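Bug #77: duplicate submission created two jobs. Keeping one. Sequence:
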Amino acid sequence: MNNLNLSSGGYSSPEYSSYTSLQSILAEINQPLQETSQTISEENSMRNREIISMSREIKSLSEV
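Kept job's structure:
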């Protein structure tokens, strides 16, 4: 019971069609999530640099 269709190079069953549709939907969902994740990562890096800078400034002021 192999649904492999050699002429098209892939499966032709309804299950495979649903599977590829699901893959397509997940890819559409994943793209904005990856972009959001990248944005959050960049913002966190920027905040961390600001915090480090402020910490150094506070340390230098406390040494005076």
